[in-house]
Amino acid sequence: MSELLEAPVPHHPPRLDDQLCFAVYAASRTIVQAYQPMLKSLGLTYPQFLVMMVLWEEDGLSVSAVGDRLLLDSGTLTPLLKRLEQAGMLRRQRAQDDERRVHIFLSDEGSALSKQAAVKHHELLCALDDGTEGGLHELGALRDQLRSLTTTLRA
User: Fold this and answer.
1) What is the pLDDT of residues 46-57, one digit of tens each?
2) What does the alpha-carbon distance between residue 134 and residue 137 come to, in Å, rounded to a whole number?
């Protein structure tokens, strides 16, 4: 990266195919599209699936904790939570000690969906495994690099 900083400023506009941001954007859209059949069978949108994964890991989190985990503000997260609550997947409950804080709890139906999601997710991972020696290991390494990039950019 330091070579880039020392290089002279180019005199031409940036090229789309040279942009990391576009490569990440295109990959993200393609991955979400690959998830669509699984999500449809679960009755969830991709953002709803993300919320459910957070709650399957740790039920009873506050809205702000879920938002922090997903990098979403409450204006984006609240409508997602309302739709999931209407679908019977979770319930929102105000904290007794501070009514400004709302905690999210999975319903029995929302908890039960985790088993179906685990099976469907495993099937998706198997489909992504291209059979090469690195296969899923390389995808894990890429995920870790993207996490590191996110941390660096947010700092």
Assistant:
1) 999 999 999 999
2) 5
